[in-house]
Hints:
By secondary structure, the protein is α/β, with parallel strands linked by helices.
Amino acid sequence: MSYSTADSFRHVTLDDVRGAQKMLAGVARVTAMEGSRHLSQLAGSPVHLKCENLQRTGSFKLRGAYVRIAGLLPEERAAGVVAASAGNHAQGVALASSLLGVHSTVFMPDGAPLPKISATREYGAEVRLHGQVVDETLAAAQEYAARTGAVFIHPFDHPDVIAGQGTVGLEILDQCPEVGTIVVGVGGGGLAAGIAVAVKAVRPDVRIVGVQAAGAAAYPPSLAAGHPVTVANPATMADGIRVGRPGDVPFAIIEELVDEVRTVSEDQLSAALLLCLERAKMVVEPAGASPVAALLAEPGAFAGPVVAVLSGGNVDPVLMQRVLRHGMAAQGRYLAVRLRLTDRPGALATLLGVLSAVDANVLDVSHIRTDPRLGLTEAEVELHLETKGPAHCAEVGHSLREAGYTVID
């Protein structure tokens, strides 16, 4: 699938970004920059969080969408706009269109989270559900544009969108003039490209590091090949950066201006989201937590002061529950264990006494007494435990074995 646009290779300049900043005055918030003592201690230098999760619509996407739609000709505005998105871009286009008095139609996948569908409608868009995956939704939106004359608003592959996203970079320079490294999540590349254009023109010494989820990392092979390549079946919990192919416009900028693109695992994303909640008191979606994941993975690799861009906070509550449990498990704070015990009265109470003695909090118990794999006098128990870290997990396992229980790996 190609993401190219008619003016794909028009250069984006610092003047474009500054013009976008003027256009966005009174529309997009100048989001907060918060220091993180915990991350600063890990990195050995000051770390600041650029809180685009607190932007209107919950992500940076409003910036680029507004600049793109505001730049349309009167006859283009009259035809309306159309977009395809599972979340953040949908909401950004919906609000930007409403503010500018332009009719918007947003195609979303059938399985898009209900809170995101509801929010997109509340911001003023006509929502149409189509397809099981974003590629199908995108095709439907493009067909609608061709049939009706509505202008297709791409989420990242257009110079005006990149200029709008670049205003984040200008704010970073204002809020942290001494910044040494900016770490930003990368999907299609619009945000990273815009920040790079703005920052490198003023401070070419600032290092800019992009972060992708390992399961959806199209930029490393694309940079190696020298042109955008497609990664088949990108898979990650970080839906905001789950893009199979870089955009042509952002790729050209990132290839020239971004110093490095790193990848992070699902475990690292989960741990980062959990840290943002617990230590920074920030609700952040997995894509928005990707810069924090990179810092946690190798905290000494970034010259300070470091600014990590929390790009969005629109996380589905169901996904949040799963990710938090995954993050707790990755940190050794959640342990699932299966074991065999003698099927007799009081056996389960005795087992729970062993766990209580090592201060393991039992969250859930599944007690199986009838199964062909079990002996006549055996029972199998699966326990979900809240623990205090890897050392405590090891202590729990040791105590169970010392008490004579057969732990099934």
